[in-house]
Design a protein that fits this description.
The complex is a heterodimer of chains A (288) and B (222). Chain A has 288 residues and is an all-alpha fold. Helices cover 65% and strands 1% of the residues of chain A. Chain A is globular, with a radius of gyration of 18 Å. Chain B has 222 residues and is an alpha+beta fold. Chain B has six helices and eleven strands. The longest helix of chain B is centred in the first third of the chain and has 18 residues. Classes of the chains: A mainly alpha (288), B alpha+beta (222). The interface between A and B is large, with 57 and 38 residues.
Chain lengths: 288, 222
């Protein structure tokens, strides 16, 4: 892997007068020894898989534990009633985040982004834009490169697995990746992409991975909504001209520091936090 | 690690570490065995043992052993498929205090009687690490073409392998050498940037002092 810091990507963008997507694409070509066409074709396959997963949601399905299922359908129905606080786009984002999280819990096919538990965040913000024809296929692909490039730095500098660093490493990373992609889609600079990553990740620092019965269900599915909305607000703040006080790479290092200090009961063992509540324990006992 | 280790894999849920990583562990084990497996004994450790059932870790490992990829929609039904193919398996648990929290130890038997013992862990995001083969540390990820050479611990084998690779214009990305004792049994693990031609691998396997050569190519269609 070539990039150990988001700053390295920003510097390359500025030095070569290229955008974030171009730098990540060129690096992938070099890293995997493939042509630009081959690289883009592979990313387009992922996009197809992501869209297929988003549009093949089944609101009737329940997970094996029966703890999750159907909420994506409820949210989508509520959106059409136009009664809630959030606007139509935000509610569609929420519905997509829930749907993808539920499809994952029901052993349907999804695209890990960066993990399966956080697979709803990135498609939740992108698919409704695509669906409304606000962005086209090429822009979706470019946004996915931006997200992947960000995730790669987080994975190499810190971690992206809940078992290693808590939920901040999964939903936090997914949210940071989505925030950067959203800023990119509004023609934000590489520096602004870095600020959006920093702000999004800062907002979720310390989030524990405490799933009930150790399953990727409660609270994971709904945390995809949190990650998606946090990405949107972070992107909008940056586009409004707001900067991150702490540089992005230092924020990633802080995430690692917090993850290392986090007790093992809060890192995907199903032993602390929500999993250790009386109801969490009862849900687990009811499974066996 | 490349960007498609971050976005992706396309996978059947629910967990990239407990499901997709587990499929890959099974799949890499099958490839390393080098023939169709007929029987497996799988021991789960740590979080795999604690929460594996709800994540379908057991189904995922069997699916990989049967040659399925992480996105195969048949993974939920794999126990029935295994029965139809007359593939025998048993599960147990094992305590491995030193190992990564998501670790499996697999004993695998092939149709011609080949045997393999592998210890592998799932690192998150579907990425894995093969920790040991036949009890010897190997520590490779399966993200690169990987050559594993079991040989007598005697001088010259490193030179043979590396000169063969440079002759074939294959660049070495990583190399490690582990042995059980001086002059005993050694395992060389080489991760390369380009695939290694099959004739080079069979040439290597026939050299004196080379006990076994295994090759894993992640880009090869199964």
């Amino acid at each position: 892997m070539s990039f150990g810091a988001i700053k390295d990507i920003i510097d390359l963008c500025e030095k070569n007068e290229k955008n974030f997507y171009q730098i990540i694409l060129e690096d992938d070509c070099k890293e995997r020894d493939v042509t630009k066409e081959a690289s883009q074709e592979k990313m387009t396959q992922l996009l197809d898989a992501m869209l297929l997963a988003a549009f093949s949601y089944d609101a009737e399905l329940l997970s094996a534990s029966k703890m999750v299922g159907g909420d994506g359908g409820r949210m989508e129905a509520f959106r059409h009633e136009q009664k809630g606080y959030c606007g139509d786009y935000i509610q569609e984002v929420m519905a997509h985040a829930l749907q993808m999280g539920e499809s994952n819990a029901c052993m349907k096919r999804i695209v890990a982004a960066p993990t399966a538990g956080s697979c709803g965040v990135l498609p939740a913000v992108l698919v409704p834009l695509f669906h409304r024809q606000l962005i086209d296929q090429q822009e979706m692909v470019e946004a996915m490169y931006v997200a992947a490039g960000i995730g790669q730095v987080i994975a190499s500098r810190a971690f992206i697995a809940g078992a290693a660093g808590g939920c901040q490493a999964e939903i936090g990373s997914a949210s940071a990746m989505a925030a950067g992609a959203l800023v990119y889609l509004k023609n934000g600079s590489a520096k602004q992409i870095g600020d959006a990553v920093a702000i999004a990740l800062k907002g979720l620092l310390g989030l524990a991975c405490d799933p009930v019965a150790g399953l990727v269900e409660v609270p994971c599915v709904k945390r995809n909504v949190v990650g998606a909305l946090n990405a949107l607000s972070s992107a909008d703040m940056v586009l409004a001209g707001i900067k991150s006080a702490i540089p992005v790479d230092e924020v990633i290092d802080a995430m690692k520091d917090i993850g290392m200090k986090m007790d093992v009961s809060l890192k995907e063992t199903g032993k602390g936090g929500l999993a250790a509540t009386p109801t969490g324990k009862k849900l687990k006992d009811d499974l066996v | 690690m490349n960007i498609f280790d971050i976005l992706g894999p396309v996978m059947v849920g629910p967990s990239s570490s407990h499901t997709a990583g587990a499929v890959r562990i099974g799949f890499v084990s099958r490839t390393l065995l080098g023939e169709k497996p007929v029987k497996a004994r799988i021991l789960l450790a740590g979080s795999f043992a604690d929460t594996g059932k709800g994540h379908g870790t057991d189904k995922a490992i069997i699916a990989g052993l049967l040659g399925m990829d992480t996105d195969d929609i048949n993974i939920p039904d794999v126990f029935d498929i295994a029965q139809k193919q007359n593939f025998k398996y048993e599960f147990g648990t094992i305590q491995l205090p030193q190992a990564h929290p998501n670790t499996a130890v697999i004993n695998l038997w092939g149709k011609s009687g080949k045997e393999l013992n592998i210890q592998a862990s799932s690192l998150g995001g579907g990425r894995i690490m093969v920790d040991k083969i036949d009890g010897i540390d190997v520590n490779f990820t399966g993200e690169y073409p990987t050559l594993i050479v079991h040989n007598q611990d005697q001088p010259g084998h490193v030179a043979e392998v590396t000169s063969m690779l440079s002759h074939k214009s294959v660049n070495i990305a990583n190399m490690q050498l582990n042995r059980d004792k001086k002059g005993g049994y050694a395992v060389m693990v080489l991760e390369t940037d380009q695939p290694i031609p099959s004739e080079a691998i069979s040439w290597l396997a026939h050299l004196e002092g080379i006990i076994k050569v295994t090759y894993y190519n992640p880009t090869e269609v199964k």
